[in-house]
């Protein structure tokens, strides 16, 4: 089975198109163009045609890249994190720099891609796939944007202009990352670039990265399972809270429920039940 369908969003993250197995060409001044970083089999077309969206599609997926998103309001900080991430990949994980794609994101940071071929990854149900990649990537560097590893998340296309910064997402070389400062890289991003990395996918499985992929299946199962949704299963929930303090207590309890993995609906039911104890 081939996993070569992806969904594009053109002009805005909300302007998602019907999934396609083809690539798209974007114009020189194309703004805010994205693609899903995971790819689907052709059953995604049936789902999209029936539902008008891919949200809720739960089949197996695969991706050609393992993405890392580095964001910071301080671009010098983002560049430092990116340099340290790349150094760790090349020095500790023995990844050849030619098997890395490095980008200035066009806004607050940098994107780094690894070829999936390095990990020996096989098609996996999307929810599990995202969780396993999140675990792996945060093991490599915990400072990355973890929100990327959710189903159907979008990844800005190379040479797409950011409508807020008027800078482009551009590919930069390993040497540019380490030898250019932020101002120099932003200057490069004032226009598109046409750099190719023909060796990106021409790689063998990396034993360490493959081991991390295999370990990730067990690691994500270690996450605590939310307890049954009853008042007796969560300790230290205050009852009889005075009316003026309830909003703050409600907020604190909500954070606790979220950290334990409760769904929104379960959390709402719990809060309602708790609030009844205060009347």
Quick synopsis:
By secondary structure, the chain is α+β, with helices and mostly antiparallel strands. The protein has 8 helices and 10 strands.
Can you give a write-up of this model?
The chain is 34% helix and 14% strand. The protein is built from 8 helices and 10 strands. It has helices spanning 43-51, 75-91, 126-140, 174-179, 182-188, 207-221, 246-259, 264-276; strands at residues 8-10, 33-36, 39-40, 60-62, 65-71, 100-104, 109-115, 124-125, 154-156, 170-172. The N and C termini lie far apart (58 Å).
The coarse silhouette is globular
Rounded mean pLDDT score: 88
Q: What is the spatial order of strands in the main beta sheet?
A: 5-7-6-10
The span between the termini is 58 Å
List how many beta strands DSSP finds: 10
The residue fraction in helices comes out at 25-40%
Low-confidence stretches: 227-236
* Helix count, DSSP H or I runs of 4 or more residues: 8
Largest sheet entry: 4 strands, antiparallel
The value of Rg in angstroms is 22 Å
Structural class: alpha+beta
Order of helices and strands: EEEHEEHEEEHEEHHHHH
Strand content: 5-15%
Salient structural properties:
three-stranded antiparallel beta sheet; alpha+beta; 34% helix
């Amino acid at each position: 089975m081939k996993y070569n369908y992806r969904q594009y969003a053109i002009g805005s993250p909300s302007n998602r198109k019907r999934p396609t197995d083809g690539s798209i060409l974007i114009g020189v001044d194309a703004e805010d163009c994205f693609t899903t970083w995971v790819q689907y089999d052709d059953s995604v077309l049936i789902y999209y045609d029936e539902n008008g969206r891919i949200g809720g599609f739960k089949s197996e997926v695969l991706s050609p890249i393992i993405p890392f998103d580095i964001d910071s309001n301080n671009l010098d900080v983002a560049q430092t994190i990116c340099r340290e991430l790349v150094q760790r990949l090349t020095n500790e994980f023995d990844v050849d720099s030619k098997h890395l794609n490095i980008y200035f994101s066009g806004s607050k940071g940098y994107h780094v891609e690894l070829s999936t071929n390095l990990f020996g990854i096989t098609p996996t149900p999307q929810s599990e796939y995202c969780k396993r990649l999140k675990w792996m990537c945060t093991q490599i560097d915990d400072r990355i944007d973890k929100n990327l590893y959710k189903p159907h998340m979008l990844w800005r296309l190379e040479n797409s202009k950011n409508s807020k910064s008027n800078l482009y997402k551009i590919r930069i070389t390993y040497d540019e990352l380490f030898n250019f400062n932020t101002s120099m890289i932003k200057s490069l991003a004032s226009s598109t670039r046409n750099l190719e990395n023909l060796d990106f996918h021409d790689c063998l499985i990396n034993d360490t990265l493959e081991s991390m992929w295999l370990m990730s299946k067990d690691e994500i199962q270690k996450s605590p399972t939310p307890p049954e949704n009853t008042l007796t299963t969560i300790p230290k929930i205050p009852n009889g809270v005075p009316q003026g303090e309830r909003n703050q207590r409600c907020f604190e309890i909500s954070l606790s429920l979220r950290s334990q993995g409760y769904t929104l609906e379960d959390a709402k039911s719990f809060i309602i039940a708790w609030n009844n104890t205060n009347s």
